[in-house]
Amino acid sequence: MASFVEDPGVHELAVKTVIERRADIRALGLVKQAVTRLGDAALPSLERHIAISQGDRTFLGQLESVFPPPAVEALGAAQGLAKETSLQTMQRLAKAGRDHRRVYAFDLYAKLSPPRDGSLSCYDGPPPAGVEVPLRAGEPMDHVLTIDLQDAPELAALAGHEGARTLSFFLGERHEDELVEDSELVPCAAPGALHPEARPFAIVPLDLPGGVFARRTDNPELQQLRKLLFNCDGYALGEPIWIQSPEPMGTFLFQLSESFGLNLGDSGEMYVWAGGEANWQCY
Predict the structure, then answer these.
(1) Residue among 276, 262, 282, 259 nearest 107 (CA)
(2) Measured by CB atoms within 10 angstroms of the end CB, which terminus of the chain is less buried, N or C?
(3) Is residue 182 helix, strand or coil?
């Protein structure tokens, strides 16, 4: 078996076949499996035959889960393809679907976009001036984030807070998992300036196909898009991307990763619902 896998002629034929049949191999995992079994020795064959893909960025995205990024960038450059930003990748993949829905990605580190000038969206510090901090047992709850509803206008009506400028989310103690579900949403109609200790973040509008929220799909573009959305720091609207079995608690508002300083077990996600309820799941 080893001599078969190491035979350069086998690599050449296998790689060429995978590229030619990439549209027929619909599942992302199958493409990854096919290329992974060939290993790094397949790279020279990929370089020779990558032109067959005709600049297929989805195929390049599949290769990124197998080979080091510099190797994949070189394959793209050989086809005259500049490296995409994460936002460009999501926008391109979104064109492949239908039944598009508005979603707002939360971006803490300007990977997709810098914060909007004048935005009050913030995290990791006190809320903007004028936002009333709720108490639990006489102690102020922890401020997780504030969403400037000018950054995500549809969220105001969905949360039942038309007329509010901001919507702030608080937890009893965001670093203690046994208290993480003690939560509250606080609207504010006329907040003041950002607190000096708060950190602004970007809220990026995306129009994504409804299929991105399906738990199972054979469409490689939707698979990659779902992964990119899930790997954002969080997002609002759309539907939850569950780690385990669905546990809905009403009208879904937004989903948060541990990037917001939350203790959510093993790489967990928090789901926040209209009314302020929250639950979370982890691996």
Answers:
(1) 259
(2) N
(3) coil
pTM for this predicted structure: 0.79
CA distances from 115 to 90, 196, 230 (A): 18, 16, 20
Q: At 255, is the secondary structure helix, strand, or coil?
A: strand
Residues in the chain: 283
Q: In angstroms, rounded to a whole number, what is the distance separating the alpha carbons of residues 53 and 64? A: 15
Dump the DSSP string for 10-68: HHHHHHHHHHHTTTT---HHHHHHHHHTT-GGGHHHHHHHGGGG-S-HHHHHHHTTTS-
In percent, how much of the chain has pLDDT > 70? Answer: 88
Q: Are residues 180 and 171 in contact, defined by beta-carbon separation less than 8 angstroms?
A: yes
> And the tokens for 50?
């990558």
How far apart (Å, rounded) are the C-alpha atoms in residues 267 and 257?
Answer: 8
